Batch of 2 targets.
Target 1
Amino acid sequence: MLARTPRRIAVSTFKAVRGMNDILPDRTPLWQRLEDTARVVLLSYGYEEIRLPILEQTVLFERSIGEATDIVEKEMYTFTDRNGDSLSLRPEGTAGTVRAVLQHNLFRNQAQRLWYMGPMFRRERPQKGRYRQFYQIGAEAFGMPGPDIDAELIILTRRLWHLLGLRGLRLEINTLGTATTRVRFRHDVVSYFSANAEKLDEESRRRLQSNPLRILDSKAPELRELIQGAPTFERYVDPESGKHFRQLRGILEHNDIEYQVNPRLVRGLDYYSKTVFEWLTTELGAQGAVCGGGRYDGLVEHFGGEPTPAVGFAIGMDRLIELLSETPQNDLARGGNEPHLYLIVGGDKHYGSAMRLAESVREAIPQIRLVTHCGSDSFKSQFKQADKSGARIALLLGEDEIARGLVTVKHLRISSGQITVAQSELIAYLQKEFASLCAPR
Ligand code: AMP
């Protein structure tokens, strides 16, 4: 027994953590549609799902994403576990995928195509399209060194946009060469920015020491001109990476995929090599990237595995949802999970019969969505709630109906009045009606 009644806490005391959003029922149908479509598309290219923990050892991200990146330096949610381990909420999915694939020896000298979906955590400054808990769909392909698989990933994302009805996404691609060629490039970039150090902002000056290539990625308007004058990678590309890139472009062109080569596309994470790409939209303001990907041939070996080529992408689901909900013809943006039927119950004596009737309907028509009213409210109030629920048909089980083995059926969205149906014939009646119940409104 409680010694004391706990003090009531005002509702307003609790709010979701800043940058972490509730996804409410009016939006979940859209999320489900995105998730279902992505599953179908990924499976149709032979990608298999992997589900990973949300917490990993902090060192996993430090070693893969890079200690001198924004994510590791200042955006991870890190804490010390009771046994002294440093753990972090995952800020992205690639590191965990590589860890799992190595831990469970999934490579065994064969190609692997994997995908995952779920929340990621970065302590960024929240704004539209940028959150601290956000969701990604990612794909990672291991063991394939050529440009064909890079192209496949891009073609796959195009198919997803197409099936979702998203138009107007723009593709940018670039090559980062190999780690060795980047050393020369990095040297020249450092010389260039060091010579212009007085024009850099504080953040870029810091990066000049830790991760100078990231300065090229800076979106600060006052640095635009300076960055435009910086060396571009083209001149440094090694012959093998150059050939890989030309072949990738050829495959994309052969498949009618429009793209722009953006020599400034470096992407945030340290482990990329050769191909990098990004899908962008102009419709979301500053947060225009909806998908980013690229090749990371060195990471598996870096984690202690056999040298294994790898390439992947991550799609920002929150941003796709924003885009989808702005598409006017997207009726799912306004719901889509409303019940088909709402069962109105005439008094507490009949709860047992009502539940039993509802179960028999669900058993016979598994796709049907039937809400049984719970609570001893008046018929008037139950009808109001039936109407509000969006259901198309109200079923009424009152004193009279029970006595005579009937159900009253009232169409709520058309003025065809109401009829009574024998309970024994209700399922046959609903089966006939079901197609029209499911038709778009
Ligand atoms: P990244 O893992 O940084 O390559 O990001 C891949 C994609 O995830 C981006 O193109 C965005 O669409 C999305 N994304 C990254 N960070 C965030 C964030 N903080 N909030 C919402 N979406 C994000």
Target 2
Amino acid sequence: MSNLSNKNVLLGISGSIAAYKSAELIRRLQDSGATVRVVMTKSATEFITPLTMQALSQNPVHTELLDEVSESAMGHIELARWADFLIVAPASANLIAELTHGRSDNLLTAICLATSSDILLAPAMNQRMWLNPATQENVALLKSRGYYISTPEDGDQACGETGPGRMAEPNQIISLTNTLFQSDLLTGTNILITAGPTREPLDPVRYLTNHSSGKMGFALAEAACSAGAKVTLVTGPVNLQTPRYVVRYDVETAQDMLETCLEHAPSADIFIGCAAVSDYRPKYRNSEKIKKTDEFFKLELIRNPDVVSHVAGKFERMFCLGFAAETHHVLENARQKLLTKKLDLLVANDVSNPEIGFDSDLNEVSLIWHKGEEKLQQATKTVIAKQIINRLAALYIDSRN
Ligand code: C5P
């Protein structure tokens, strides 16, 4: 499994003869497990047809910014949110100049401006255009704003000249992309993460649960691993694949979750409580299936232990992150929870919007800690997880100094 496995990669193609290499790049991305969608500028379509790219990517190719049909199907904002990662290959001198100035008059530049995901540019152009101070300064400025650049190669060019400006080969772009999903921010740390819902049985066939899919907790486990941490994931019943290198324990009830966490917490430096733990459980668990008899059925519930509070209270030196899913007064309630649950960082999400949060691939959250807060724009859970891990790592390192 590569770091690109199950990732949504948006491939932007601008006008350059190197566009033929993008066909190969789609294949290599798919071999790495990524789902690919393609956006082409008008001049890119002069070099290679959208039909070729559609056949290879197995998805419709997007070319128009102001087009009713395409905007209603998947518009520039949806595409910007859909992408876990953006690759612009080839990135022409003109496209680079447009990005430098924050222009958004075509679909590709509008997406680059609207996304919260990382962007990798693979420049391709004539060697004089590449070496021109205008291009060099544009690239330097984009780098300083967080763009990644796959440096073009030196060699024979389609125009007959020789020099730097040949687009990097697809395999090089893939290996660079793979490394961008990795860092050593949390190397040497052990992280314990809870994920998913819990199931609280009433009898052998029925239980109380909630809509949590576990996607956010699993995305955090993967992001923490990619940042170099050793990750132990304690999860309620979910239908998800265990991320590479993550040690997983499956549990059902809140009590099972607490016991498993307490067993692994002594060796953990950081605890992330992402599970949607049932606050209550049936007071009695019938050993036989409950029969329907009367018109009304009264169910008595008792409080479950609060996993994150227990762990944070018992292991005071551990850095603890909790979640707060709220439907109203989101930030006030979240700030309160940061204090009452003795947490170092809290991720608050407004679950009143059914499009994001529970069971969705997207999320939009605010991070709250004792000395600050940050709002993260709507993006995939993979992108949000990476941003949470980056903030957590900075605060964790700070707390140890
Ligand atoms: O109090 P509330 O349920 O909103 O708090 C949410 C946070 O507390 C999440 O981090 C969740 O994982 C954790 N929690 C827990 N055990 C519970 C209830 C919530 O660990 N019983």
